[in-house]
Amino acid sequence: MIRPRHTLEPYSQREKDFQTQPLPSNELVKMLFDTALESLLILPVLVERQDQVNKVREINRVMCIIYDLREMIDFERGGEFALSLSKLYSGMNQNLLEASKAKSKNQLANIQHVANILQQIKNTWDKAPDISVKNQWLH
């Protein structure tokens, strides 16, 4: 059965509205953490299977997310904490870059190291007492 186009219009408008409404910064950060951690869980399987193409794709995804998290830091309000977090993110991306190499002997160790650090950062973020504290770390 083919439905008339006008019966689907309310649904397509709702989808458009959803796509154009920006997430609050704190929700965006949570989503970025969750997505990166999901990719980091998949990576050891891809390494074991020697699936270089998908491994690099997932590593690139995580590196982009970490880059985005770093870009969201407000260095003026965050002070020394912001600088330390930025350096931590940069180090994580260096570990992932090393893990992306096909001949790297420490692929799994580097991936696990990044996963552990990112999980700790996420846990700290989740424990922040309220949104105003979280937003002071972000642009």
3D architecture notes:
This protein is mostly helical and 139 residues long. The chain has one domain: Four Helix Bundle (Hemerythrin (Met), subunit A) (Up-down Bundle). The protein is built from 6 helices and no strands. Helix 2 packs antiparallel against helix 3 and helix 3 (52-71) packs antiparallel against helix 4. The radius of gyration is 19 Å and the shape is elongated.
Helix and strand arrangement:
Elements lengths: L4 H16 L4 H24 L3 H20 L3 H25 L7 H21 L3 H5 L4
Write a concise synopsis of the structure shown.
By secondary structure, the chain is mainly α. It has helices at residues 5-20, 25-48, 52-71, 75-99, 107-127, 131-135. The relative contact order is 0.14.
The end-to-end span amounts to: 50 Å
Question: Could you give the order of the helices and strands?
Answer: HHHHHH
Name the average pLDDT.
83
> Any idea what the radius of gyration is?
19 Å
Shape: elongated
The CATH topology turns out to be Four Helix Bundle (Hemerythrin (Met), subunit A)
Low-confidence stretches: 1-8
| Oligomeric state of the chains present here | single chain
CATH class division: Mainly Alpha
Helical fraction equals over 70%
Within CATH, the superfamily carries the name: Flagellar protein FliS
Strand content: under 5%
Kindly give the count of domains.
1
Indicate the structural class.
mainly alpha
Number of strands: 0
